[in-house]
Every structure is written in C-alpha cells, then in structure tokens.
Amino acid sequence: MFRSILQIYVKGSDEAFEFYKKAFDAKVGFQDIDENGTVIHRELDVCGQAIAVGEARDTTTSGGDRRITGNTMQFCIQFGDGQDDKVRKAYETLLDGSKILTAFGELLFSPCGVELIDKYGVWWCLFV
To answer: Domain 5-127, what fold?
Structure first.
C-alpha cells in the first residue's frame, strides 16, 4: 500500500492534535501508545489523507543535536469544488493565533481559499 503522510512536529502536540482535529473535522487514525500511556505516534484522517502530529524535541533521534524550526514547507489541502464550508471551518479554527499571509477569499487559482501560518508555526494553504 502506498500512502503519503504529512508529519507535523510541534511543542504541545496534545493540544495541537485536538486543534487540527477540530479544524478539519478529522477522525482519529492510527495511534501507537507505549506501556506508560505515552503517545508515540498518532494520525488524523483528514478527508482520507493522513496528518500525523508529534511532539517537537530539542534533539532528534536521527542524528541531529538540534531541531531547526522554520516555514520552509507548506501543507496544502485542496478540498474540491463545492467544499467552501470545509475551507471556511478550517480557516475559522486555525485563525486563533495565526498570521494571515493571503486573506480568506478568492485566490489566483481558486474561488475560495486562504494562506496562513498557524499558532504552532505550520504554514497552510487551504482551498477548493
């Protein structure tokens, strides 16, 4: 099976997980919890696409001694024609603490969309 997963690492991942769950009306997907009840990995199902939310650490287990944070990636979600209400709901939820880059409304490539950096530093482009 082939699939693509968007992985977000943020400080306060428990809160962020619930935040994104609400924004996208997402279902809880795969979760891996250790014997102490600590979440190791968890995913949200957003319209059939997986978005994983994990806790950002100051070090990485894959060879780095520090994590570099920046908006060098953008997560784009195209909801499809007639799904303006989903774009608006996600926008209205993500608006809390965000920086708007392109105001909600008509975009060059879509009749309805928005571009923002949310309170966790994740850069989103949402459109129909």
So the answer is: 2,3-Dihydroxybiphenyl 1,2-Dioxygenase; domain 1 (3.10.180)
